[in-house]
Amino acid sequence: MLEFRNIVKKFKETLVINDISFSVKKGELVVLIGESGCGKTTTLKMINRLIDPTSGTILINGEDIAKKDVISLRRNMGYVIQQTGLFPHMSVKENIEIIPKVSKINAKKIKDKTLELMEMIGMNPDEFLERYPIELSGGQQQRIGVARAFAMDPEIILMDEPFSALDPITRASLQEELINIQTHMKKTIIFVTHDMSEAIKIADRICIMNNGKILQYDTPENIMKNPINDFVSRFVGKNRIWSSPELIKVKDIMIESPITIQPKASLFQCMEKMREHKIDSLMVVELHTNKLLGIIKAKHIQPYKNRNIEVEKIMKKDFSHALPEESIVEVLKLINDTQESTLPIVNEKGCLVGLITKSSLVTTLSQPFVEQKEVI
Amino acid sequence: MKEFIEFIEYIISSYKLIINLLADHLRLTAMSVGLALLIGIPLGILISYVKRLKKPVLGVTNVIQAIPSMALLGFAIPFLGIGTVPAVTIVVLYSLLPIVKNTVTGITNINAETLESAKGIGLTRFQVLTKVQIPLALPVIMAGVRIAAVTSVGLMTIAAYIGADGLGYLVFSGIRTLNNNQILAGAIPACLLALFVDFIGNTAEKLVTPISLQTNSKQDKKQIENKRRNSLILLGISVIFIIAIFVLSAFL
Fold first, then answer.
1. What is the C-alpha separation between A267 and A265, in angstroms, rounded?
2. Whether A31 contacts A199, CB under 8 Å
3. Distances (CA, A) of B132 to A94, A135, B137, B144
4. Contact A188/A27 with Cβ under 8 angstroms?
5. What does the pLDDT read at residue A192?
6. Phi, psi (5° rounding) for residue A257?
7. Residue B32 has pLDDT above 90, yes or no
8. From chain A, which residues contact B within 8 Å (Cβ)?
9. Which residues does chain A have within 8 Å of residue B213's beta carbon, measured at their own beta carbons?
10. Cystine design at B61: which of A216, A254, B97, B133 (Cβ 3.0–4.6 Å)?
11. Which domains does chain B have, with CATH numbers?
């Protein structure tokens, strides 16, 4: 859809963009993020040619944008900036309709589109169309800005810190709305911000920039889990992952090699193994396939005086389990509901891949707090 | 009291002359301001784009403004002779500075982000100018025009000295013949005319200011719209008044 190839930008002698290449898929919401002066806004403005690159090419659907007519390129690309982007002397209606009007689209179509857009952003057309930007709140102005960007039904929409001047509550609700609109309209959106939590909330992929280079370009989840270097991890914030726990997956925190025993083993062998590893339960798995058959706990064994019985006769067969891709939140719920102290993790084939116990959860969850204490 | 009656008598006896001169004065002033607008606004727009020209153009208009008006009129005589032509030329030159300067200020003072978004959403340069820059700059431009128009009325009075028609004729000939009534018959209408032009300028300035930019005083939109309607009516009455003067002067 959109591709940057070896883009370099120099302002006089200063290198602003240092040979970046990346691509954006159709329908993706990509967030460019970095400290001020990292080149993120410059990168964005090169897409609608407000700034031309010193060298390199930008392709949209395989076509070099430098060869396209700049006016029609911009008209088919939404552009949203902070509030000041609305024209103060025009009413809401005039602001939304300006580009369709100068493109000579017929009046009926423009009118229908405007009403549709007002509905999309959740503002009553009768009440707001005739108002001027100054009569609207910051959030409302920004909604109109978003509506205007959609007026020509563009494939690509560029957003340059559109929500940064808003109060946190309004910002959050606009972010929600943007996600909603995005899932309905499936536009390709390039969004510039310096706010990491905003990026994590809305992005399909995040592109972290510094000194005109791309440091890491990946999904929010991967960036939080595997920051590529110190700068990224500092920028993301070390404990950021804890503010979006749904991104923490079971496989990230499970014990990967739980102690197992085969079904034909005797209770005596079970007791020995438990003592040896200082644990009170064992996973009973089929030999070779590693298929989980049941769980045996110390308290199950105790009533049996005859320690030669095979473990498969008394093991617990109706156990709750979780998949490695499930989030930590779901696991916590499950453990709360069942009051089990151990939760085996099995894959789709029913094979044991890991284990979560109450104590391993406590260890994981206490990480951010314990680490902070060490820093102090 | 006696003097006052004499003055009234003078006005009644020479009202035809006064109205004719008033009409001439108005015509010449309008012509000068009109020409100054035609030259000044495009010049202002030009130099707000071509930055290199800004200093020389503003410098020249500044110098013209700095020359005493009487001296400037004197300069005109060797080149353009006497009469209407040099008078209008000088008044045009004199009116340029406020118009050019305010046009540049109005256009260059628009929020850079507004302009960038206009460009970014795909308006051509000409559309940015006509749809965004000029509408937003219009109140400032209009303020310059108002200053130019008021100075023009005054300057046109002095221009009678080099033979231009207008109310100045009465003033100067009154001075020569030591006729106080004649001087006042020229000076009083000239003053009133200046005030009148200022009033028209003020009204026009308010009318061209976008409604949205007037709401700063937290006034109701309805109130502002009512005010605008009243201003429009006043402006209409003024125009009718001016036409009446011209019609009257044609018949007298």
1. 7
2. yes
3. 12, 19, 9, 19
4. yes
5. 94
6. -125, 80
7. yes
8. 45, 48, 50, 71-79, 81-82, 84-91, 98-99, 102, 132-135, 148-149, 158
9. 88-89, 134
10. B97
11. 8-211+219-251 (1.10.3720.10)
Contacts of A97 (CB under 8 A, 6+ apart): A110, A114, A151
Domains of chain A: 2-243 (3.40.50.300), 251-364 (3.10.580.10)
Rounded to the nearest angstrom, the gap between the alpha carbon of residue B159 and the centroid of all alpha carbons in its chain is: 15
Residue of A nearest to B220 (CA): A135
Tell me the C-alpha distance between A373 and B78, whole Å. 92
Query: Minimal Cα–Cα distance from B188 to chain A, Å?
Result: 41
CA count, 13 A, side-chain hemisphere, A307 = 8
Average pLDDT over residues B110-132: 91
From the CB of residue A325, how many other CB atoms can be counted at a distance below 10 Å? 11
Pick from A71, A77, A82: CB nearest B124? A71
**Helix-, strand-, coil-residue percentages of chain A, each rounded to 5:** 45, 25, 30
Q: Mean pLDDT, to the nearest integer, of B106-116?
A: 90
Confidence of residue B27 (pLDDT cuts 50, 70, 90): very high
Calculate how close chain A gets to B120, using CA atoms only, in Å: 6
- Phi, psi of B145, deg, nearest 5: -60, -40
A87:B118 CB<8 A: yes
Measure in Å the smallest separation between the Cα of A355 and chain B Cα atoms: 54
What are the pLDDT digits (tens) for A192-219? Answer: 998 888 898 899 999 999 988 999 999 9
Continuous segment of H or E residues that includes residue A105: none
Looking at the partner chain, which of B114, B116, B122 has a beta carbon nearest the beta carbon of A87? B114
Q: What pLDDT is attached to residue A374?
A: 44
Q: Which has the minimum average pLDDT: A67-71, A283-287, B29-33, B209-213?
A: B209-213
Site of tokens 């079971």: A250
Q: Burial level of B222, CB count in 10 A (0-12/13-18/19+)?
A: exposed
Per-residue confidence at A268, pLDDT binned at 50, 70, 90?
Answer: confident
B218 — phi, psi (to 5°)? 60, 30
**8 Å CB contact between B163 and B82:** yes
ipTM over 0.90: no
Closest to A11 (Cα-Cα) out of A33, A35, A36, A39: A39
The yes-or-no verdict on residue A188 having pLDDT over 90 is yes
Q: Which residues of B touch A48 (CB under 8 A)?
A: 120
**A66 vs A52: CA distance, rounded Å:** 8
Question: Measured between alpha carbons, how far is B172 from B155 in angstroms, rounded to an integer?
Answer: 14
B123/A135 touch (CB, cutoff 8 Å), yes or no: no
Residues of B in contact with A85 (CB under 8 A): 113-114, 117
CB nearest to A75's CB, from B122, B136, B215: B122
